[in-house]
Amino acid sequence: MPVTDDLDTQINMTSSTNKVATGKAISEQELTAQLDALLRMRDSEHAMFTAIASGMTRESFYDRLVAHVATVMPEVRCCLVSCDSELTDWRILNQQGWERVGVDKVGTLERVPQAMITFAASPSRDTCQYRELSTHSDWIAWYGLLDDQGLAQCDMLSVQDELGGWFLVALFSQSLSAVERQSFNWHVAQALKGLKTLTQAYFCHNEADRVLIESQKSDKVTGLLLRHAFDDLFAVMLKDARRYFQRLAMVSVQVTGLQQNDDIKQFSQVLAKTLRDNDLIARYSDNEFLMAMRIGQLDDVEVVAKKLMRSLDEAGLPQRPGCEVKVGLALYPEQSNNASLYHSAHNAAKAVAEPVGYRLEYYGNFVQSLDEAYSL
Question: Fewer Cβ close by (within 10 Å): the C or N end of the chain?
Answer without folding.
Answer: C
